[in-house]
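Our consortium's second objective concerns turning raw sequence data into structural hypotheses that experimental partners can test. To show how far this objective has progressed, the report includes one record in full. It was chosen at random from the queue rather than selected for favorable results. The single chain below, 553 residues long, was entered without modification.
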Amino acid sequence: MENEVVSRNFIENEIDKDLAEGVYDTVHTRFPPEPNGYLHIGHAKSILLNYGLARKYHGKFNMRFDDTNPTKEKTEYVDAIKRDIRWLGADWEDRLFFASDYFDQMYEAAVKLIRKGKAYVCDLTADEIREYRGTLKEPGRNSPYRERSVEENLALFEDMKNGRYGDGEKVLRAKIDMASPNMNMRDPVIYRVAHMPHHNTGDRWCIYPMYDFAHPIEDAIEGITHSICTLEFEDHRPLYDWVVRELEYPHPPRQIEFAKLYLTNVVTGKRYIKKLVEDGVVDGWDDPRLVSIAALRRRGFTPESIQMFVDLCGVAKGQSSVDYAMLEYCIREDLKMKRSRMMAVLHPLKLIIDNYPEGQVEYLDAANNLENEALGSRKIPFCKELYIEREDFMEEPPKKYFRLFPGNEVRLMHAYFVKCESFVKDENGQVVEVHCTYDPQTKAGSGFSGRKVKGTIHWVPAPYAVDAQVRLYENLIDEEKGVYNEDGSMNLNPDSLVTVNAKLEPALKDGKAYDSYQFVRNGFFCVDAKDSREDALVFNRIVSLKSSFRLPK
């Protein structure tokens, strides 16, 4: 379009500069998760950013698992991550890689550094290495093993590979500068001994590269041009550059950092989620109260809503937090024109129309979405006995209450006017039946204009109602107290999940996993993919209909 506004974030500006100056002639990005847990909403930003950049510049996007730490990694996480990324719409085509695919090349890279005098085997313990490293104000001290000969280092490193030493007994360190103001450059460990089977390589290796050494090698081998990562790796960039420079890769990748996505009052830390799962507070990594991608999908969020959310958050260099309400805004915006508006009664109260003919059933027309005619219409059975929401009747109403109360008349949505004549209570004083009369002349769509009513309520035909368990979710965290206590424990909201036994209109009986609908007045709901069965439907509330959140102008 002629008047299209071209917007660039700072990463795109850097890429434009690199292409213009001939540093690179293409763009090749990657997403490199560690398979030690499920991905969350923050990872979604990184996935969509890297994939989006590759598409925007007609480049390539790689999917790569940084599986260099077998103590925490599982095939379960590998499978879950692939599933989540596919669902988000990022396509790695035939470029699925594992860091462990390159273990031989990483070993040879370490040997090359030893031969160049740039790496040495160190016998210090982890605590001693920490002590020798110094502080932010004081330089570190050289390891007593720093000046070993190239030959001795080569022999010791081979012995490490061959299983001659126990875990932690020896490490390989880069020889850089123990006085560097950047702690990451003070002879960092680049290989450690770990007698642990690997999910991809089995028992072949008992030494494993450290992430900071492996990552730049992986990027260089795959021809990545721009290694986009989050801001905590900014201080690691000199080490990243040192590795690719010392290993003399002909087309070194460039690392660029952006700010992480922080959501208010949610739990994203893998350690904390793992504890919630193990303690039974949530029913797995995909519990709809979490913000893992699997949880958001199960709750009923769509890839489009998450893309909208990421776009609204933007790409910045400075850290900031985003209100969870913005994510809710995005799913409302995405679903409101796409989903049918159905009737579901979450807290049922029987309504009997005394003057409606016994045994009569008529089928009423209902538009599926008044704002989107393309969604068509459906027929709803109407009869003498219905269910309405318990809150839609009051024995003694306050002012400006326009729903049912003795003597008041309302419209039943898609149906008739009904007037409350009486009600019945049980032995505990709870209202169990509301009795009404209807006016046959007031049928919806008939053009009746004899009188007006101020209230319209939804309903479900009792004989045809579908029973379902409906889960009403609130924030897992007590928002007033914040996420964590001083002792590290979490401030959990005891009402984060409320389950009700609802009555649904019959058209909902065919709902399949992940199908979503708007329940009139109650919000958007999704068929639960984990617990719902054909004979026992379970719906999750995705989001309520209203929020105080507004996009800034």
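The partners drew two points from this record. The longest strand covers residues 417-425. Residues 1-6 have pLDDT under 50 and may be disordered. Both points have been shared with the crystallography group to help prioritize constructs.
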